[in-house]
Amino acid sequence: MKIVLTKQPLHEIHSQCAICFLPEDVHPLRGAAGIVDWMLNGRLTRFVQHQGILGKFKESVLIQPGRLLACDKLLVLGMGPYHECNPEKILELGGKVRDVLMGLKAHDVSLSFPMLSAEEPPDTFAEYLTKGFLAGEDDKELHEYFIAFNLALSCAFNQTDEILLGIQKVKVELKKHFNAIVME
Question: Partners of 22 in the beta sheet?
Fold first, then answer.
C-alpha cells in the first residue's frame, strides 16, 4: 500500500476512483465537494435537490464524471451532520470507503478530506479514516487488496504535516508496513 500526499486538487488527480465527502447540513457545498460540484456543472447540487441524496451518514453515490474530472468514477460519501463528525464516525467511514472500493475493485484512488471543524483537526481525521480503512487487514482477501492499493490524498497546503502525522500514528499503532510519501 502506498499513500501519496499531494497538493494537487482532487479533480486533477488521475485515478480509477475519486472520493469526496458530503456533509448533510452544509449547503451550498464547500471544500472539495464544492469544487467537484462546480467542475460537474452543479451535478451534486442537483442530486441533493432532486434525487434525495442528502449526505446522510455512510450514504454513498457513485457518479460517472465523464471527461469533467480526471477520474473514472466519483464516490460521494455522506458524512452526516457536519458538527456530529467524531472519531468513531470517521472510523466507520474508513471501513465504508474500504468496502465500496473493494466492491469496485479500485486500486488507484484519490481522496480529499472534507472541510473540518476545529474540534476534528486533520490529523485526527487522517488517523481514524486510515485505521477504519485498514481494519481487518489480516484477512487474506483484504491483505492482497492492500498490497496493490495506491491512494493519492489531496491536502490543503497548511494541512500536509498534520495529515501525515495522523497516518504515521496508525502505522506505528497497528505496526503496518506501507509507504506514506509527501509530494511537493
Answer: 78
